[in-house]
Amino acid sequence: MLKERFKELENKLLTEVKSFYGDRLVSFVVFGSVARETYRFDSDIDVLIIAEGLPNGRMKRVAQFLTIEDRIESFLKTLQKEGINTYISPVFKTPEEAEMGSPLFLDMVEDASILFDSNGFFSKRLARLRNRLRELGAKRVWRGNAWYWVLKPDYKPGEVIEL
User: Fold this and answer.
1) Helix axes 121-136, 104-111, angle to 10 degrees
2) CA 60 → CA 56, 57, 92, 130, distances in Å?
3) Regarding predicted confidence, which is higher, 38 or 69?
4) What is the pLDDT averaged over residues 8-15?
């Protein structure tokens, strides 16, 4: 049941994101525990929204997103009544910012669930990063209760690693 409810939330969220951003939406990506399907009843849903014309500054972007949260609030309340205490953790990037890359994208190489991707924009970005990681011999390592990356196993002090 948990899996179905998170899928339903993903679909509702995608519908509202597409409606709000319209033609400005470039990519909508779910990542983290929900994308890996390792979520729990209290897991958040991590989403990456890549859109044209985003306002400058995270707080202005979050303020815009509140419109979307308002539209799915009743569904979130229904989930809470069922014991699913989830919330949305959005990350916002313009296409130009996404092209510059982000450490956040490292785990998305393996764990992203791309639900919308105009012209394959983010898929191509992840493919370039995946290829670069392969060139470097990078390895994703589980330690304790988290993943980390060894970007270049034969790293020498002072060497610059570009992704």
Assistant:
1) 100
2) 7, 6, 10, 31
3) 69
4) 97
**pLDDT of amino acid 144:** 83
Residue 1 has pLDDT above 90, yes or no: no
pLDDT of residue 38 exceeding 90, the answer is no
Q: Find out whether 16 and 68 touch, Cβ atoms under 8 Å.
A: yes
> Degrees (nearest 5) of the Cα angle 70, 79, 31?
75
Identify the three-state secondary structure at position 99: helix
- Whether residue 9 contacts residue 86, with contact meaning beta carbons closer than 8 Å, is answered with yes
- In this prediction, residue 162 has a pLDDT band, given cuts at 50, 70 and 90, of confident
- In 3D space, the residue among 81, 83, 6, 75 whose CA is nearest the CA of residue 39 turns out to be 6
d(Cα 124, Cα 27) in Å, to the nearest integer?
11
Phi-psi region of 29 (alpha: psi -120 to 50; beta: other; left: phi over 0): beta
Which one-letter DSSP state was computed for residue 70?
H
